[in-house]
Every structure is written in structure tokens, then in C-alpha cells.
Specification:
single chain, 5 helices, elongated
Length: 120
Amino acid sequence: MVILGLTVLSVPAGILLANAAGPDVPMAGVMILVVLGIICLAITLVAAIFIRKGHNWARILLAVYTGISVLTLITNIGLLGWWAVLALVIATVMLFRKPSPQYFQAMSQYRQHKMLKQPY
């Protein structure tokens, strides 16, 4: 949830920085920034919702997204600020540490059990 907040804050911060650069910044560049920010927000939101539900694919999605975010930060494209990328890295590391795999396995077993018990 912290990452969602930082993502929401990074888009207006990027627009303010683009405006501070002067009137030479094309409007298309600002629109690309907004669209990419919305995409980043959507990826983070989907990952957060499905991680909470215990879906392992969402954990992998967040790991891939974190890797791409780190690469964009290193290459100085930096859609997200360094604080948001740092929060992503911390969250991803926590999702692969000791208690998390048991949670995802338990949730998977719960969903399988729930599906078997439902009448058709």
C-alpha cells in the first residue's frame, strides 16, 4: 500500500519537474508520463490485491515489475522515484522471505479446498 501511495505521488512530482524544466517540454512527454504512471499504478494495485489473496503469480509479477523499475532507475529513465523503487525492492524481498512462502501455499490449499466443496 505504501508503494501505491508513492506511485500516486511520483506522477504529479514528475509533471512538476517537467514544468520546472521550462516551456520547452513537449505536451506529449507529459502525457506519456501520465499514461505510464497509470500503468504503473494499475500493475501495483493488481499485484497488491492478489498478493493479499495469496496468489503466487502476483508475487512473481511484483518481482518482475521491481526488476524493471530498478533498471529504469539505473538507466535514468526513472518513472518512479528512488523512494518508490526502494519500497518495491523491500516489499519484493519480504515476499520471498521465510514466512511468506508458507502463506502463499496455505492460501493455495485453501482455494483448492474451497473449490472442491462448492456444489455445482
